[in-house]
Fold this protein.
Amino acid sequence: MASQTLYDKLWAQHLVTQRDDGSALIYIDRHLLHEVTSPQAFEGLRLAGRKPWRRDANLATPDHNVPTTLKERSAGNAGILDDVSRIQVETLDANCESFEIEEFRINDERQGIVHVVGPEQGATLPGMTVVCGDSHTATHGAFAALSHGIGTSEVEHVLATQCLIAQKMKNMQVRVEGKLGLGVTAKDVVLAIIGRIGTAGGTGYAIEFAGSAIRDLSMEGRMTICNMAIEAGARVGLVAVDDNTIDYLKGRPYAPTAEQWSAAVEAWRDLVSDDGAHFDKIVELDAAEIEPQVTWGTSPEMVVNVSAEVPDPAGAADETVTQGMTRALEYMGLSAGQKITDIRLDKVFIGSCTNSRIEDLREAAKVARGRKVADNIQLAMVVPGSGLVKRLAEAEGLDRIFVEAGFEWREPGCSMCLAMNADKLGAGERCASTSNRNFEGRQGYGGRTHLVSPAMAAAAAIEGHFVDVRSYDYDRADAMSA
Amino acid sequence: MKKFERLQGLVAPLDRANVDTDLIIPKQFLKSIKRTGFGPNLFDELRYLDEGYPGQDATGRPLNPDFVLNQSRYRDAQVLLARRNFGCGSSREHAPWALDDFGFRVVIAPSFADIFYNNSFKNGILLIALDEATVDRLFQETEAVEGYRLDIDLEGQTITTPSGEAIPFEVDAFRKHCLLEGLDDIGLTLEQSGAIRDFESRHRPANPWLFRDA
């Protein structure tokens, strides 16, 4: 057989039927659900008198609307003060009950952001197809699972048929070779990639992230990278299976056990691109050249090195880009030539499906340890990605470090990444955020978002403005054990 | 699904690139558990001068006079003309629901984001990608001529301008067929239940760990 990319293999392994017109039916192994994009799909099933094709392929949890303060959370759904939000969460509960779908409810310790929960439970496995009504489903590709976001009509389609109508994407390889500098993280790598190829650079492609710098990343880091593939326009981000993948999954609740484990591992070892496999496009980055990244505008591609200045729209490639940059500067309240490290902040958000896993919290805590949040920061919040991440972080004492430094330590959920719950920016407020989108109004009406890594966000909270964590005095190697 | 065959529609120009789904329909409106009623909140942050909230009566809200859809000449537009990478961002199908609810049946742009592209066709909205130069020209003509309409023929894959110029466009055969016939995807797929069961009978023994119901 001809050499295949990882994506080619995953596609072939799930192909049910291929039509002459280029469309195909592909089989879906895992379907994750949350409260925002599923109610209309369940309603559609009900109206058509249909049932889920395979109940055990589905797993649900509420995440977008859940409150993150302990006071509200302790009351369960009743603690959701916004009626419309509460109804949406209650609707998910009712739908999962009537269609007999497993759900981790609001105060189940396993609840969390759906893209943190899936891998953490081992419900995401290599070689799977994974879909969810959420564009950040690309996250699960870190496990060599063919994963992408879908709309609500497709949620209904997957529930009813266990399949999706799809068209094969093109293959892109993004290769990052070399060693990352100290203080440079997966988030900086993916922002640098988006800065290079642009927010539509990956449209129509499945991107495989490869190279020694990607192989050196933990699974958490790989999830951060794949998570933001969609911010480069690619629905699918992938990383090949290696020992990291397998070690991460061993012993997880939904992972195979006993003799099935060894059979699975043997099958998973083949989930790599063959030597000589054809990629339609290859992009290469030198890891050593990547600096900590900060977005300055209203699209993730509007990103620069922390040591740089806000760019000048006059230097843009064409009129449309100039217009977009000018509008972004106006919205963000910035001017060309301003130093990134001079940008002062009002709020700091550490969380989201991009950066709320244990490793992210450890990185931020290393910076925050023994320091105090600056006076000009009105709110610095840390929102763990799941109840289990929260428990682990507390067992390591990270919560104490954050609280003593003046951060708020919250309950798990999507929170201020998209501000569907009560956590949001006010008009004109400027936020250093570890989330994935800096769109206008994303974190609140009129809010201004700068995307950064967890360490950069924590340092910005302490100093009140952006700083280069590479020159920041903190113990990077400390395992937080003291 | 709503059929789409042919439309002679008024065109509205939205002159900005990378219009994301947060801009098309902001998150607070995603709390609805319905598929309808999103029209008044399409482009909410561009369209109104205040912050909108779900369940609100939009009639008394202050309009942004500079926003294109607030200009009386574009009020009944059914064709939206936009710039590159339209619909980037989230997978929310509320974006095409809002466009549809407002009255748009066609969006023309140099390029679209993948998930938005899929979602739109599933709601009977035709997305047409044309090269930048052609889109540029359509922008100029739309802005120059009040009441500018385009005749869009899906069967013939042609857009005809008021001057009689015919612009061909691409659309993949399967999506075209579904749109022309107004076909329900799920019904179509369920006709292949046998093939799905056959697939499962091979997939399960090869990957038993993917099935938790045994």
Notes: Residues 83-98 of chain A form the longest helix (16 residues). Chain A touches chain B through 85 residues (CB under 8 Å). Residues 23-167 of chain A form a domain with the Aconitase; domain 3 fold (CATH 3.30.499.10). The mean pLDDT of chain A is 97.
